[in-house]
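Chain A, query sequence.
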Amino acid sequence: MAITIKNEEQIELMRRAGRMLARVHAELAKELKEGMTTKDVDRLVEEMILSFGGYPNFKNYNGFPAAACVSLNDEVVHGIPSDKRYLKNGDIVSIDTGVLYKGYHSDAARTHAIGEISEEAAKLIRVTEESFFEGIKKARPGNHIADIGQAVQRIALSNGFSVVRDLTGHGIGANLHEAPNVPNFKTLFRGARLRKGMTLAVEPMVNVGNYGVRRLEDNWTFATADGSLSAHYENTIAITDGDCEILTMLPEELDLLSGDKEKNRPGGDIRQAVREIPGTFIVLKEEKKKPAEKKQEEKEAADKDRSEKKPEEQPPVEPAAEPVTATIASERQPKAPYQTLSPEEKRVRRESLFEDD
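Chain A, predicted structure.
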């Protein structure tokens, strides 16, 4: 299959499919909790995608029976959602899904923590994300496909982890999977030269242990061969004249990554982005600050609170946390019941995705 070069109109359709998918992942991060089944997660994904005006492109793709791949702990990718598998405290769950919009596809994955996870698991999630962002620094015209994978692998190996070699990223566009394959590791051949208009799904899959994987009896799910934890992070990107464009992140996420000078935000740090975006799923250790700096910041924050607080203000009342219980699908009520939205509410939600266009 030949590599297809997209024009601006085609990339705009992929950009819209990508923004829908980015919103799904952002909303999903707020919904996940102990006691949900992996099928609950799949139902939420499908409801969200449809409510935003897209179609879940994973559903029935080559016979896959769900809208999302939901993979737990040692499962790498392609986990089939089930009403018999529950999210438990300490689990990590990788959710891979995509959106079809007016004939063009987006594809993205995130790995989430459920409750309190081990330091090793938290590091794995962080390093997997970092390896993606290091890899796409090489996604520029004139470089080669292999340059991306080599950069991804360098980050994983330097942190004591391994990168899956039996599964790769891919081209994407009018088809969910297109040429070229995008390995996450150093290869003998450099691969295709990158040029403007190429669109790729770059997706590091990183294991705590060995890079080997095995296919489970369902003939879909891949798990680590040694039973170690695995994490997955993916975005759809477009090659431009300079730095690539990430199509499956929200504008506010991209602002945090690139830096917003007006808000004095640092750029290029995914960990900073994760800290600041509401509803994110990784609790990260704050950088150590000098005592004088910390004291000054505390004083400024206290002064600001006193100046802004109004006497009649009352602190907002937080809703009571829902009890963590293992529930069957027919009993669970998601926080955001997308299936109950009226046509007008759905229209407003769809239009709000692109209100800054």
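The first strand starts at residue 55 and ends at 56. The chain is about 30% helix and 15% strand.
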